[in-house]
Amino acid sequence: MNNKISTKRFVLVLKDSSKFFLDDKEAGLVRNAIKQGLDYLEVGESLISRWDFSRLVSSVNYEEAERKRQGQWQCFDCKRWHPFKEKCGCMGGRY
Question: Rounded distance, CA 46 to CA 38, Å?
Answer without folding.
Answer: 15
